[in-house]
Amino acid sequence: QVQLVESGGGLVQAGGSLRLSCAGFGIIFSTKTMGWYRQAPGKQRELVAEVTSGGRTNYRDSVKGRFTISRDNAKNTLVLQMNSLKPEDTAVYYCNTSPYRAQWGQGTQVTVSS
Fold first, then answer.
1. What pLDDT score was predicted for residue 114?
2. Own/partner pairs, 12-17, CB within 8 angstroms, 24+ separation
3. Residue 54: its pLDDT value, please?
4. Sign of the CA dihedral 29, 35, 36, 40?
5. Closest by alpha carbon to 23, among 95, 101, 103?
6. What is the mean pLDDT of each successive set of 10 residues along the chain, which is 114 residues long?
7. pLDDT recorded at residue 104
8. Is 29 helix (H, G, I), strand (E, B) or coil?
9. Can you give the pLDDT at residue 60?
10. How far apart are CA 38 and CA 45, in angstroms?
11. Cα separation of 114 and 98, whole Å?
12. β-pair partners for 13
């Protein structure tokens, strides 16, 4: 059974940074295209960034140049480095395959104050 555990969220002022991590159990991240998703209140969950098994990355336009997705294969973790955070980045962040196929984890809350 696949289990995804996200961590690293918190409250930060606009312009600040956070580093999110996702640990995977029952899944090998290096063999998958993995993604970070987010869901803001009242909005649909959206893909923020993804990294292919070959290491290619893709970002949604609103986070390009500010967010960096990476993968630590030895630790089987997925990381999202978020810089220059904006209030509109406020959401619960999740990791999953891209497209998503595993059961969602609990997510980690990111709140950016103005």
1. 94
2. 12/85, 12/110, 12/111, 12/112, 12/113, 13/112, 13/113, 14/85, 14/86, 14/87, 14/112, 14/113, 14/114, 15/84, 15/85, 16/85, 16/112, 17/81, 17/82, 17/83, 17/84, 17/85
3. 94
4. negative
5. 95
6. 96 98 95 97 97 96 98 95 98 96 96 97
7. 95
8. helix
9. 98
10. 5
11. 31
12. 113
One DSSP character per residue, 32-93 reads S-EEEEEE-TTS--EEEEEE-TTS-EEE-GGGTTTEEEEEETTTTEEEEEE-S--GGG-EEE
Cα-based angle 54, 56, 60 (whole degrees, multiple of 5) = 145
Indicate the residue type of 89: D
> 74 with 29: CB under 8 angstroms?
no
Other Cβ atoms within 10 Å of 72 Cβ, number: 13
Instruction: Identify whether the C-beta of residue 94 lies closer than 8 Å to the C-beta of residue 5.
Output: no
Q: Are 45 and 38 in contact (CB under 8 A)?
A: yes
The helix/strand/coil state of 31 is helix
